[in-house]
Amino acid sequence: MRYMKWTGPVAAVLLIISCFAPWAYISVIDFTATGLDAGKQFRSPGYFNFAFVFLFLVFTFIPRIWAKQWNLLVTAVNLGWAIRNFFKLSSCEGGECPVRKWGLYLMLIASVLMLVSALFPGIKLPGSKDNASGASK
Length: 137
Hints:
Elements: H1 4-20, E1 22-26, E2 31-34, H2 39-42, H3 46-60, H4 65-90, E3 99-100, H5 102-119
Antiparallel strand pairs: 1-2, 1-3
């Protein structure tokens, strides 16, 4: 669990990288969708991820319990947005199925890692003892 503190920021950097990577290739119109340019129908879903990454990093480095609670909300909404993007950009329409690229998978994996790191913040609660079992030595 001691590495969980740095898993989140590394996953956030991976999420930013995935927004610049190719997400899907649509062969009918010869177009490669990325997080910053997904065409007229999907616009730019990566900018919403940038906002979530910013909030996630701010709340991760604030050593308060309320920040960790807000971080759970931010990462849960971010994962929902990632799942939405995954299914919207890779779904078949009119008999044409886009080819999923590595950036789409990286975006989904990085969002899951951000949520997992928010679930285990590694903050010590005030009033908690090292010997949590209550047994005497």
